[in-house]
Design a protein that fits this description.
This protein is an alpha+beta fold and 181 residues long. It has one domain. It has five helices and five strands; from the N terminus they run αααββαβββα. The protein has a five-stranded antiparallel β-sheet. A hairpin with a 2-residue loop joins β4 and β5.
């Protein structure tokens, strides 16, 4: 069997990973802080961390693949603007940037350090990614659950637009004499 063409990334595949990451982000507090589960040896915490980072990385890769295959990331910042802060450091200068879904995916993929902060009484944890690009450090602090909700909203709009475009193409192709607007 040969695999020809591009990587196969479906909206449902992205949606599935976004839901898994959302669930993992929100379950961290309840499992690791507010639970009857006693993880004295840290086994559950270790497996949770592995599962969380693996799913988050998988989500970033499939979304980036979607952008490489032609989806535009230019208008995606409005979906996730409420999910966190991106800081870029240049020496003593610190700059906060507006970011897109693609930017977050790039940071997830290239992060040198991943930290999740769980605070007693705060069930929605904050995740911080640290890294560097061309010797300039950056930091993304964000809510993975809010990011995933933004991705789900973006997917919904993207899929709806694609379906409408395909419907228009089908109408056009089935009746070529019908004028289009």
């Amino acid at each position: 069997m040969e695999l020809l063409g591009t990587h196969k990334v479906s909206f449902d595949g992205i949606r599935s990973l976004a839901i898994q990451c959302h669930s993992l982000a929100l379950s961290a507090y309840h499992l690791l802080l507010g639970s009857t589960h006693k993880d004295k040896e840290g086994r559950s915490k270790r497996i949770y961390e592995e599962l969380f980072t693996a799913k988050l990385l998988a989500l970033a890769i499939v979304i980036r693949t979607t952008f490489y295959q032609g989806s535009s990331s230019d208008t995606t910042s409005s979906y996730i603007i409420h999910s966190g802060f991106l800081y870029r450091y240049n020496g003593d200068d610190e700059k906060s940037d507006i970011f897109t879904i693609k930017d977050v995916c790039d940071k997830i993929i290239h992060a040198e350090e991943v930290s999740m902060f769980l605070e007693d009484g705060v069930p929605n944890p904050t995740t911080t990614l640290l890294g560097a690009y061309q010797k300039h450090k950056w930091e993304l602090t964000f809510s993975v659950s809010l990011f995933c909700e933004g991705v789900l909203n973006w997917l919904q709009d993207l899929q709806k637009a694609e379906e409408e475009a395909n419907t228009g193409l089908k109408r056009k192709s089935t009746n070529p004499e019908t004028p289009t607007e």
